[in-house]
Amino acid sequence: IEDRGYTVFRGNSPLTDEEAQMDGISFQTWGVGRSMRFAAVGMSTPSPSGGGDAESQVWFATTNDRSIAAIEDPAERREKLADHFRTWHDPVARLIESTPSQDILVERGVAHRHSTKPVFDLAAIIEHERRVEERAKAKERGQEYREPPKPVDHDGPGPVLIFVGDASMTV
User: Fold this and answer.
1) In the predicted model, is pLDDT for residue 101 greater than 50?
2) What was the pLDDT predicted at 27?
3) The domain containing residue 56 runs over which residues?
4) Compositional bias (Basic and acidic residues) spans (predicted)?
5) pTM higher than 0.85 for the full model?
């Protein structure tokens, strides 16, 4: 895993498409410097009350300003993030401000080493991650990690069975 040098903030604004004035359009805006980006897309989910769909705007923001992520109070952090994007086009700051502060996720931007090339075999990545986790668990237990046996190539002749014993199956 490689740290990309920025923090990712993710939120789900309760503003409807009409309130956000998104006109059904999704967008991603890139800033100049400071690894700043912002993207939003409208989303409809079944309403909890059962009265049709509930609209919201799913968004993410990135910046390499670590001071924002360091703020522990969620409301204060949300305000600082909104201020960071205040000069950007509408509805960027409004989407941030309308999102419940405790619901804004904060995480470091990272890239998996496999993401430097196109992913053609997702199963291989999942298997690699499973082995990394198994190695860590074995190390925690003070045990040596042993690679599991490689699966039989299904294009081959199949498994070989060897019986040891005589005609009466006595070993």
Assistant:
1) yes
2) 94
3) 2-111
4) 134-156
5) no
Number of Cβ within a 10 Å radius of residue 111: 11
pLDDT digits (tens, 9 = 90+) for 13-35: 999 999 999 988 999 999 987 78
Burial of 35: CB neighbours in 10 Å, binned 0-12, 13-18, 19+: middle
Q: Tell me: do 8 and 65 sit in the same domain.
A: yes
143 belongs to a structural domain: yes
Distance separating alpha carbons of residues 125 and 113, to the nearest angstrom: 10
Q: What would the DSSP string read from start to end of 4-57?
A: EEEEEEEEEE---HHHHT-TT--EEEE-SSTT-EEEEEEEEEE-TTSSSEEEEE
CA separation for the pair 129, 122 (Å, rounded): 11
pLDDT digits (tens, 9 = 90+) for 39-93: 999 998 887 777 778 889 999 999 999 999 999 999 999 999 999 999 999 999 9
Question: What's the total number of domains in the chain?
Answer: 2
In a domain, 170, yes or no: no
* 57 and 40 belong to one structural domain: yes
Q: Are residues 122 and 75 in the same domain?
A: no
